[in-house]
Specification:
Layout (H helix, E strand, L loop, with lengths): L2 H9 L9 H74 L2 H9 L1 H37 L16
């Protein structure tokens, strides 16, 4: 080994191959950046594929939950109708028809009855609107077409 080369290696200016250390380090950094960029792209593709799987599973789950909620709502409506029928039958057995008619003709009670019916209608309108809007928004999100390309380009290494 030439003395200048040996001295350069001791001081850290020259690599074992004899190339100036700065050039060797720059080449290694470029190789590392290229490898990192390739790995990053592969990871992005895997992440996108994984995210698409999650979105599809969420869409299936949302559809199944919607079916369950519809079935539960149908059952609840039938049960409420049955309870109302039972309550009306019980009312008709316990309260005399004349007494019921006179109570319904009372202006204050009739006004409260109308207001209560309107209040229940408004509450169900609001609840129904919120539930369907949330369901539609979630359905639109999970069903929206996805781009195969990333929206944000990866950062380019500084040369």
């Amino acid at each position: 080994m030439r003395p200048a080369l040996a001295f350069g290696r001791i001081l850290g200016y020259v690599s074992a191959s004899g190339a100036p250390l700065e050039t060797t380090q720059r080449g290694a950094k470029d190789d590392a950046r290229t490898k990192e960029s390739r790995m990053s792209n592969q990871n992005d593709q895997r992440d996108r594929a994984g995210l698409e799987d999650v979105i599809r599973a969420a869409a299936r789950l949302a559809e199944q939950l919607r079916d369950v909620a519809t079935t539960a709502g149908t059952v609840a409506e039938r049960e409420a109708a049955m309870l109302a029928t039972i309550a009306e039958d019980l009312r008709d057995r316990v309260i005399a028809a004349q007494r019921l008619e006179s109570a319904r003709k009372d202006e204050v009670l009739a006004g409260l009855r109308r207001s209560a019916h309107r209040g229940v209608d408004v509450a169900f309108d609001i609840a129904g609107t919120m539930i369907t809007a949330a369901s539609d928004a979630f359905g639109a999100f999970v069903s929206a077409p996805r781009k195969s390309e990333p929206r944000i380009e990866p950062a380019r290494p500084n040369a």
